[in-house]
Write a structure and sequence with these properties.
Elements: H1 15-57, H2 61-75, E1 78-87, E2 90-97, H3 101-107, H4 115-122, E3 127-129, E4 151-158, E5 161-171, H5 179-222, H6 228-243, E6 247-252, E7 262-268, H7 284-291, E8 295-297, H8 307-312, E9 316-326, E10 329-339, H9 347-410, H10 414-441
Antiparallel strand pairs: 1-2, 1-5, 3-4, 4-5, 6-7, 6-10, 8-9, 9-10
Helix pairs in contact: 1-2, 1-5, 2-5, 5-6, 5-9, 6-9, 9-10
Length: 448
């Protein structure tokens, strides 16, 4: 028996050689498969690095979140991807990719964080499923929702808190997501947490700068001597510009002219509030006036203090109210609001807004004091002018009149005497007019 050629002298295939060839073919197939795995791994690593770079370069939080959703979908070959932002144990926002607008429109509202998504919020741990329906927390899908079977969810942490979750569904080319898919998603979530923190810090710095500019604008405008109504309008307008809100309103506290709080200014989204009386019991304005503390209302429709406000403005969304307080009491309550479905105010926004309102209250005090000083100065100027008129001008006019009368008495020409008499009469009229003006300029005591 010989191994050469793989056949014996009689031309019959030698079994040993055939087995060796079979093993070699299998080894080659395994080698090719491993090469493909290495290539796929290298491709994923390159994709992950590109995704990390793209995400890390973003400074706009909205843009960063959408890049995270898009990158996660591509990296694990998912048909659908979403990112849910968690606030106070609930889904506050839901960004998604993979569904066409028509499908989204038919489905209606976005998820509220119930079922499987709610389970992830309650227990933020990675989860990988071959069949969503088999999970105990699964609550099914709404009507017109596309079918989904395989699922992968990983939390996104920003330092020591859960910012949200990545949701991936319908693995392409396989029945379910692999462990490698889970590791890639976790790695992306880690990079996303850092990028979100950076974008959040940048956004906070930008908002702080905007509020500082608003404070400067308020100080500049109010100290130009504007009246009360103009000052309030300037205050509300600066707050609107700094916050990016859709509407603003100013509620004056009870006074002599109004037994209860009253909205003296409302524009933008809150224009329907303008001129409305505010109930002194159970309203947001009453709460802020009574406590002297700012308030944030994420969902006015679900807050009893803002039920009447939503009735007047049904599209009312997230809103904030802060007291505008001076050294001698409250000037009123400043309120700003977003339109429902748009941006939401957060705790950092309330902090900046409250600081702005405190600053505005002090500036209103200074502006009022300046107006009072200007009024006092004007009265003093009028008094000085009246005194000078009384002591000098009228005296001189009297002297001139007496001199003319003396000249007329000594003159024998009838025409000249008549002209001098007319001049004296004119001087008398001028003296009476000056006396009337002086009397009007002199301050008189207030009468009950």
């Amino acid at each position: 028996m010989t191994k050469t050629g793989g056949r014996g002298r009689d031309g019959v295939e030698v079994p040993f050689v055939a087995d060796a060839r079979l093993e070699l073919d299998e080894l080659l197939e395994q080698l090719v498969e491993r090469i493909r795995d290495v290539q796929n791994t290298q491709g994923r690593l390159r994709g992950l690095l590109r995704a990390n770079l793209d995400i890390a370069q973003g400074v706009d939080l909205e843009q960063v979140l959408r890049q995270i959703v898009s990158a996660s979908r591509q990296l694990v070959d998912a048909r659908y991807a979403a990112l849910g932002v968690v606030q106070d144990g609930h889904l506050a926002r839901f960004l998604h990719e993979g569904m066409d607008p028509a499908t989204v429109g038919r489905i209606g509202g976005l998820p509220e964080g119930k079922g499987l998504l709610g389970a992830l919020v309650d227990d933020p741990q990675p989860i990988r499923l071959a069949e969503i329906a088999e999970h105990p927390a699964s609550a099914g899908f709404p009507e017109d929702h596309p079918p989904m079977h395989s699922f992968l969810g990983v939390p996104i942490r920003v330092r020591d808190r859960v910012f949200g979750h990545l949701y991936l569904a319908e693995k392409q080319g396989a029945a379910e997501f692999s462990r490698d898919d889970e590791e890639v998603a976790k790695a992306l979530a880690g990079a996303a947490g850092v990028a979100i923190e950076n974008a959040t810090l940048f956004d906070e710095a930008r908002r702080r700068r905007d509020w500082q500019e608003a404070m400067t604008a308020v100080t500049t405008d109010l100290l130009r001597g504007a009246g009360r109504d103009q000052s309030v309008r300037c205050l509300a307008d600066c707050a609107l510009q700094a916050s990016g809100a859709d509407g603003a309103a100013f509620t004056a506290p009870p006074g002599d002219s109004a037994p209860g709080p009253r909205v003296t200014l409302g524009f933008g989204l809150l224009e329907p509030w303008h001129g409305r009386s505010v109930s002194p019991i159970g309203t947001l304005a009453e709460s802020v006036l009574d406590s002297g503390e700012p308030a944030l209302v994420p969902d006015p429709a679900g807050d009893p203090r803002t039920a009447a406000a939503v009735g007047a403005v049904p599209e009312l969304g997230s809103m904030m109210a802060a007291p505008v307080a001076g050294n001698h009491g409250l000037h009123g309550v400043l309120t700003i609001a977003h339109r429902r479905g748009s941006d939401r105010f957060e705790g950092a926004d309330l902090e900046q807004f409250a600081a702005f309102a405190v600053h505005a209250g002090l500036v209103l005090d200074v502006a009022a004091l300046r107006r009072e000083n200007e009024q006092i100065q004007a009265l003093e100027d009028r008094q000085r002018i009246a005194t000078e008129l009384q002591d000098t001008l009228i005296r001189d006019l009297f002297a001139l009149g007496l001199s003319l009368q003396g000249v007329a008495a000594r003159n024998t020409n009838p025409d000249t005497r008549a002209g001098l008499a007319a001049g004296v009469d004119d001087l008398d009229r001028i003296i009476r007019a000056v006396r009337t003006a002086v009397f009007a300029m002199e301050p008189r005591p207030d009468r009950d």
